Amino acid sequence: MSKTKIILFRLKFIDLYKVPLEGLYHIVTINGRTACSGASIEGGYTVWISKPAGTRFNVSIKDPRNGSMIDIIKDLIVPIKKTTLEAQAPFAKHKFKLKMFEGSTGDYLRKTHEVESKETLSSIAKVYGIQWQQIAQLNSLKEPYKIRPKDILKLPPTKARQKTSTDSSPQNSSKDGDLSLKTEHTVGKNETLSGISERSGVSVADLKRLNGITDPRTLQAGQAIKLRNSGSARPPVAQPTTKPSTSSNSPNNKEKGLLDRAKDAVQEMAENLKEGFEDFNDAVSGTKEGESADGSRSFPSKSTQRKNKEESDNSNSANSSQSKQPSNPIETQSKNDRGQTGTPKVDVTKLGDCSCNRDLSLGEFEDMIRQLSGKSEIELFDHKNCTLNTVERNTKSLLTEVNQIFKKYGISTCIRRIHFLAQLYHESAGFSTTTEFSDGTQYNPGRHPNAIEYGNTTMGDGPRYRGRGLIQITWKNNYKLYKSYSSKDVVSNFESISKSLALSCDVSGWFWKQGKSLSSSARWTGPSVRPSYLKDQSIDYPKQRIEEESATYGAVDMNLVADDDNIILITYLINGGDNGIDHRKKCVKTLKSFFEYPSKCVSTGVQKPVVQVSNSNIAPWMNVAIREGKEWYGKTEDVIDDTDSYFRLINFLDRSYDEMTNRRNAWCAAFVSYCLQESKFTKVSGTGDDYDVIRANGFRLDTVNFKKIDKPVYGAIAVIGKSHVGLVLGTVNNIEFYRLGGNQSDKITIDIRTISSHAFYVPTTYYQTAINQDRAEIRSESDMKALRISWVGRDKGSTT
Fold first, then answer.
1. Is residue 590 domain-shared with residue 647, that is, in the same domain?
2. Which of 517, 516, 518 lies closest to 528 in space, CA to CA?
3. Residue that is last in its domain, among 594, 612, 633
4. Where are the alpha helices (DSSP H) in 142-294?
5. What is the pLDDT of residues 467-493, one digit of tens each?
């Protein structure tokens, strides 16, 4: 007998509009066991999978809109030769908007029309009282919108008609037609922002933001506008390498080989999924303008003739009741994004348009100010005591400085900017002044109990060194510290901060990053005597050691406090109390709404620390561990278990499998084994006991696949006794190291543990690389927290 031929195949994930889905988490299973799992690579591809021809497999993916796993392919057959199969996800990477429909009820069963001779889209649309564009969009027709007799066209649901507007024929449509591939567009005669939005797939709000447009009525013919960032234009769809198969109900279907049937199955499944979601989109009667087609509304399953078509529709119907959260863009990282330190490089590809790591546009900055003030008119720096240069009292000048200090002081993410802008807006009385309203006499020695301690030693120092700048720095000592830092003599020329917008903004960024003078101890755990509003606060932040000409002190980077979304602590650090806390909270709430935080934020947290080594061969399993830690930031094991039971992911299916879950069992070893498996390293398997793969002690006992080393190199497997295992992420000093692991405080966390209490192991095939490495690099707690993985620190409640 001849042996079954082993075939290489892979999948290419595409969305409803056939755009490749990169970074899409997926699981390919065969007979209940994982054959492949991880994130799709560039172009939407999986890794190559090697299985016998004729093997049946299933595919499930993680829905980026809500994190749930959904099945998209069942019982597909491995083809008879090496090939790439397309797998279509039931969602779109970019949001597409629906026009508003009249009425709240209607017949939502699928309607079709068979094209007759000499019919056009316009003539068909008139018969059904709809617009031709609806038919074109529903049937994925592109310019020149050709239709032929006997074509079957899908029609929108009855009574779900668009509100009337000026109709135009396909022949008279804009030259540019479909704008989904374009990054820029020149406005044509009589074109509107709404029309451009419909053809480009970009919302009106995003078009306004990208182009600084505050009033769409000002759009003019010949005006060049930006549609999207150059990296987010829809790429062309790659064509399959093999000849496409014919329809699955062809009379010759029975004579097809395995490859054709496999392709038919993929195509049919994709069409069923797409049709289901089109039904869903069509059934949105009364949908508000600008609402995403991906929103949550149920629809009835279609009656079908084929069993798997019926199963597909039922599956889609269930999925239609998902969260109303807008679709989150898919996030991917470059392969070569790790070094010996384990911290990612800045090279991160993100799909989305939140405020992270970019300049704010003038249009959105002005809209932000309007929302904060509640007024349509913007009036800046108009208070009678404001001494700012008149020529700088405008939004453009202010925005220029704000964008600069964002970059200079690491205010790089949505949440950091939200808190920073909220404090600036409050402290400057709504951007109305750069000078404190009071005359400052209350800060004179003899009038204020701490005046001399804070540097105001001479009568008149109070008015001289009162609050100035957008953040209102006060006291002579702070003026002296900023002078040492910037080389600007603001001590002698104290009014220069109030008069110069650049200084007014820069001093605010400096104070936010490193200007708050505290004791020189290594950590800030709050004031020695806590006021009532701080008593319930968990305060533990690393300090930066700042050495200036006038003083050496410790300072807390308020970006870290903003990362924790702690308005009370930030206000204490800036104000020294809780003055105006209600208004500050209101500003934060308004800004979160404006920036659509957190639903729209694509950031994982941070301005990434610098990496000295960038070698993808250095402990590649750490990239998987960091990815998992980011993905499950703040989530406990019961939430993780719903999707990522690490026992299941490492194929631990023998004996008592039904009882092996993250919730019920220690899963630290399963987590480490999964990271090794994903990076193509061997798991524990050389002990003779199948259970050792999920035991911390298994790494000690498996002397075939793992070797002990005498130092905590980056990525080393850190085992303590027989009870716990994690991974070395970095060192604190010569005594302690940062440990990244699962089942630590029931989460994936980073904690700090002693080197001497652990034994360190690496895969045998990696041993020669490991012994040539130095100890993992000493990193700061700021670097660790910047990874946005749940932080435990030295908390003994984590693990031993």
1. no
2. 518
3. 594
4. 193-200, 204-211, 258-282
5. 999 999 999 999 999 988 888 899 999
Examine residue 266 and state whether it is found in any structural domain, yes or no: yes
The 10s digit of each residue's pLDDT in 634-691 is 888 888 876 667 888 887 765 444 444 545 678 899 899 999 988 888 888 777 787 8
Could you say which of 594, 612, 632 is where a domain stops? 594
Question: Domain check: are 627 and 571 in the same one?
Answer: no
- 654 within a domain of the structure (yes/no): yes
- CATH number of the domain encompassing residue 549: 1.10.530.10
- Statement to judge: residues 552 and 664 lie in one domain: no
Q: Which residue has the higher pLDDT, 388 or 543?
A: 388
Residues 467 and 539 in one domain: yes
Count how many residues are written for the chain.
Answer: 800
pTM higher than 0.85? no
Q: What are the DSSP calls for 173-213, one per residue?
A: S-TT---TT-SEEE--TT--HHHHHHHHT--HHHHHHHHT-
pLDDT computed for residue 157 by the predictor: 59
Q: Using one digit for the tens of pLDDT, what is the confidence trace for 698-734?
A: 999 888 889 999 999 999 999 998 889 999 999 988 8
Q: Clarify whether residues 313 and 393 are in a common domain.
A: no
Q: 113: buried, middle or exposed (CB in 10 Å: 19+, 13-18, 0-12)?
A: middle
Higher-confidence position of 508 and 42: 508
**Which domain, by its residues, includes 628?**
621-793
Could you give the dihedral angle defined by the CA atoms of residues 644, 647, 653 and 656, in that order, rounded to the nearest 10 degrees? -110
In terms of domains, do 488 and 562 share one? yes
pLDDT at 664: 60
- Residue pair 606/312 in contact by the 8 Å Cβ criterion: no
Contact 348, 334 (CB under 8 A): yes
Task: Give the Å distances, CA to CA, from 511 to 500, 562, 663.
Answer: 17, 14, 44
What is the reported pLDDT for 213?
A: 79
Residues 314, 369 share a domain: no
Cβ(401)–Cβ(505) under 8 Å?
Answer: yes
d(CA 516, CA 553): 9
Residue 697 has pLDDT above 80, yes or no: yes
Q: What 8-state DSSP symbol labels residue 659?
A: G
Assess if residue 582 is contained within a domain. yes
The two three-digit tokens of residue 241, written as one number:
């390498």
Are 429 and 565 in the same domain? Answer: yes
Of 407, 388, 405, nearest in space to 507 by CA: 405
- Write out the two tokens for 30: 């065969």
CATH number at residue 276: 2.60.40.10
Q: Which two tokens stand for residue 556?
A: 């807390």
- Do 131 and 162 contact (CB within 8 A), yes or no? yes
Q: What are the strands of the beta sheet with 706-709, ordered from one edge?
A: 706-709, 759-763, 717-720, 724-731, 736-744, 747-754, 790-793
Domain count of the chain? 3
